[in-house]
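In response to reviewer comment 3 from the previous cycle, which asked for concrete evidence that the modeling workflow produces usable outputs, we include below a single protein chain processed end to end. The sequence was submitted unchanged, and the resulting structure tokens are shown without manual editing.
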Amino acid sequence: LQLVESGGGAVQAGDSLRLTCAASGYAFSDFDIGWFRQAPGKEREFVSAISWSGGSTHYADSVQGRFTVSRDNAKNTLYLHVNSLKPEDTAVYYCNGGDYWGKGTLVTVSS
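The workflow returned the following structure tokens.
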């Protein structure tokens, strides 16, 4: 499974973005898929996850209510809608499925 993230950028606090993870290789729909992030000088942390069917989602407390994860198995694509961004959301955001990771997309939020 190959994963490629996109959609990051430099935004102001309160703005929104849609992050995308495009998958190829193995059957995307076989995998539960998640988003992680790593801020400068910090360890990688869990952000959100969605089950293979899309029927179950999970969020870190820090993003609950602001971020929404979704997937389109027909398009082999995972999404993360990030709203009400805060400077502490600044990080490289990674897509993860099983043992597979993308290379990340950078989100920078200025106050």
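Residues 7 and 54 are 21 Å apart (CA to CA). We consider this sufficient to address the reviewer's concern, and the full set will be provided in the supplementary archive.
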